[in-house]
Amino acid sequence: MFQTFDSYAAGALIGANTYALNSNSGNGAAPAFGSSGNYASVLGGGSYTVNFGATSVFSFVLGSLDTYNTLVLHLQGAPDVTYNGGEIVGYPGLFDSGNQSIPQTNGVVSYNANGGPLIVGATFSSSANSMEFDNLARAVPEPATWALMILGFGVVGGMMRRRRTAVSYSAA
After folding, report:
1. Largest distance between two CA atoms of the chain
2. Distance CA 70, CA 162 (A)
3. 121: nearest Cα among 80, 85, 158, 153
4. Contact predicate 130/70, CB 8 Å
5. pTM for the full model?
6. CATH top-level class for 13-147?
7. Do the beta carbons of residue 40 and residue 64 sit within 8 Å?
8. Cβ neighbours of residue 119 under 8 Å, at least 6 residues apart?
9. How far apart are CA 19 and CA 120, in angstroms?
10. Using omega within 30 degrees of 0 as the cis cutoff, is the peptide bond preceding 130 cis?
């Protein structure tokens, strides 16, 4: 996770008409699953953009998905991809009722580049109150993964450099 909204004071303005909130109000509803503490709430006409290093996986916790919520994924060297309402969770026209308690409109949403252009940022926006989200995360290789990869390269390199010795036999 590279960004939660817990470091902001409740009610703090954190983007264009976007606030850090910590409870349900007329301006937002806390995501029902996978979130605690503060969350971001984009109010009508607002947006929140986050940029990060290129990654193949981006995820966040979504709260009460509505038809008027929009997510734009910014891609490296490719046009942006825009998702509206139910498209955000992979069900166009479904599960965008704003329900504050069912898993289809609340919970972790993940995007995987699947070998395509890498994801370098995202913009959350809403044309009416509100789009709620929290716990932004991206794939980052673990140090152990890097260590194993480097060790593997070393072993392969060592094997390639090893000289083969020729064995000859002589008959006596």
Report:
1. 99
2. 57
3. 80
4. no
5. 0.79
6. mainly beta
7. no
8. 54, 55, 56, 57, 58, 73, 74, 75, 76, 111, 113, 138
9. 23
10. yes
DSSP string, the chain: --B-STTSPTT-EEEEEEEEESS-BTTB---SSS--S-EEEEEEEEEEEEEEEEESEEEEEEES-BTTEEEEEEETTS--EEEEGGGGGT-TTSS-B--SSSTTTSEEEEEE-TTSSPEEEEEEEESSS-EEEEEEEE----HHHHHHHHHHHHHHHHHHHPPPPP------
Q: Are 144 and 69 in contact (CB under 8 A)?
A: no
In the chain, which residues have pLDDT < 50? none
Average pLDDT over the chain, rounded to an integer: 87
pLDDT of 75: 98
Give the separation between CA 70 and CA 81, rounded to whole angstroms. 11
Query: What single letter denotes the amino acid at residue 22?
Result: N
Q: Can you tell me which residue has the tokens 């070998």?
A: 115
State how far the Cα of 34 lies from the Cα of 37, in Å rounded to an integer. 11
In 10 A of CB 26, how many CB atoms? 8
